[in-house]
């Protein structure tokens, strides 16, 4: 097992509940998948024959009519709800740039969990916590206007910075628009709304924030219309 796989498994909520000595059992029959940008990782309505663990890159879960897009990165798993319930995938996942996935056969995972009740309970608990976080993220995004979503995202990138800050978007703006639940034209308008708050976006991945504290106050207190 290489270091990338070990690192991703340690970061995974699901695999962190599984004793290290048992990891080899789960990797029996596993596959490593390398996908190019935009490639389909799994499709809504298709059977879930494997649990997917992101080893590198990111997977985008297509949004529904009412929810923004979700983004899965290193250590995140996809398809667990379908594997554990024996139902088809409830959404579609696509590669956001090149991505490498570890595919654990559904049958191997289920056989292991059925024979290790304590681990199964811990795994379900970990999944429930992850689901709560995703629901909270979606709820917060839906309550914010497009400009507020963008401001919150940029502030997260800025971290604890104060005063002037320069942040770099970790992926293309079209993927950022998907993640924030808007189309590219709406994202451009959101950037335009933030200009008078000192936010200047370059044509590349660099975004300059003139005053982080001012933007933070704006994101906390202002009310926008999208």
Automatic annotation (TrEMBL):
Superkingdom classification of source: Bacteria
Lineage: Bacteria, Pseudomonadati, Pseudomonadota, Alphaproteobacteria, Rhodospirillales
Listed name of the protein: cAMP-binding protein
GO cellular component: cytosol
One Gene Ontology MF term: DNA-binding transcription factor activity
Limits of the Cyclic nucleotide-binding domain: 14-104
UniProt-listed SMART domains: cNMP, HTH_CRP
InterPro entries: cNMP-bd_dom, cNMP-bd_dom_sf, Env_Response_Regulators, HTH_CRP, RmlC-like_jellyroll, WH-like_DNA-bd_sf, WH_DNA-bd_sf
Keyword line: DNA-binding, Transcription, Transcription regulation
Species this chain originates from: Paramagnetospirillum caucaseum
Gene3D superfamilies: Jelly Rolls, Winged helix-like DNA-binding domain superfamily/Winged helix DNA-binding domain
HTH crp-type domain location: 144-213
UniProt key word DNA-binding: yes
């Amino acid at each position: 097992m290489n270091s990338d796989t070990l690192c991703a498994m340690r970061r995974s909520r699901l695999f962190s509940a599984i004793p290290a000595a048992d990891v080899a059992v789960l990797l029996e029959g596993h596959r490593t998948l390398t996908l190019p940008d935009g490639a389909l990782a799994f499709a809504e309505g298709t059977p879930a024959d494997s649990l997917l663990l992101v080893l590198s890159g990111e997977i985008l879960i297509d949004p529904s009519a009412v929810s923004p897009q979700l983004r899965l990165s290193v250590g995140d798993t996809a398809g667990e709800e379908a594997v554990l319930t024996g139902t088809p995938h409830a959404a579609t996942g696509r590669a956001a740039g090149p991505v490498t996935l570890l595919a654990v056969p559904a049958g191997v995972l289920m056989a292991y969990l059925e024979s290790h009740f304590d681990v199964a309970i811990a795994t379900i608990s970990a999944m429930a916590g992850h689901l709560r976080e995703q629901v909270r993220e979606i709820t917060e995004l839906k309550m914010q206007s497009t400009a507020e979503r963008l401001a919150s995202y940029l502030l997260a990138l800025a971290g604890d910075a104060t005063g002037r800050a320069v942040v770099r978007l970790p992926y293309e703006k079209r993927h950022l628009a998907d993640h924030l639940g808007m189309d590219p034209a709406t994202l451009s308008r959101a950037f335009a709304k933030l200009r008078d708050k000192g936010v200047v976006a370059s044509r590349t991945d660099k975004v300059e924030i003139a005053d982080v504290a001012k933007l933070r106050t704006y994101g906390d207190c202002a009310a926008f219309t999208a």
